[in-house]
């Protein structure tokens, strides 16, 4: 046993810090914090074996509230920081967490390339379809006609919302799931599965902003668990996701692509090519 290993058993509470969250009372992110800490404990991890990395936004405050290693990094750049951390410290469980504005707008390009690079990290996006911290601007996942905030254009943006799960699949993500903050135990199970799955795992968690999107309180009536077998077939996953209404929760896709650094590298590519042309 090395000095870093431990035989102690930790509970979800051990993964929570002493810092009291400043989220609005009723924000969905409280439950997501509980799901993350429960997943770490259920997996038998220790705080010193885990790390939470975030960008900027309401949900990106989460490293302060966890008793793990953590980096509250730069707006939209959490995935770059998280991948670098994992490559430098492959022994750590690295969980990157943030919101829909941080992850899909400012960090959109990092999202695409993290999916295809397939470093063995877990990415959680607490999606409330709004920029909460900056007081209610539409985000990439906001419905095109939403204009209930003083910060939204009259009649809405008119833009087609970003479909993060379909885009993750098209970009090569190895594990794709959706959770709901109103189901913290189910979401903890999904996060634990995502952490265990090799490669880049993406979990979108619908997490209501009760301050700027009060109508999202109704999500508890529209979210549904889909007790389907997660498919390993990207074509089947694509069909499922393209007909998805945004309310199906569960593990929707499990790929079998080896994680970055674990691929079988072609060692003799030139002679293989040569053989192909001479046969
Ligand atoms: Fe949560 Fe919205 Fe309040 Fe931010 S503004 S803490 S997302 S309820
Ligand atoms: Mg948001």
Automatic annotation (TrEMBL):
One of its GO terms (biological process) is small molecule metabolic process. Residues 56-204 form the Thiamine pyrophosphate enzyme TPP-binding domain. It comes from the Bacteria. InterPro entries: 2-oxoacid:Fd_oxidoreductase, THDP-binding, TPP_enzyme_TPP-bd. Transmembrane segments: none annotated. Keywords: Oxidoreductase. GO terms for molecular function: oxidoreductase activity, acting on the aldehyde or oxo group of donors, iron-sulfur protein as acceptor; thiamine pyrophosphate binding. This is 2-oxoglutarate oxidoreductase beta subunit. It comes from Paramagnetospirillum magnetotacticum MS-1. The lineage of its organism: Bacteria, Pseudomonadati, Pseudomonadota, Alphaproteobacteria, Rhodospirillales.
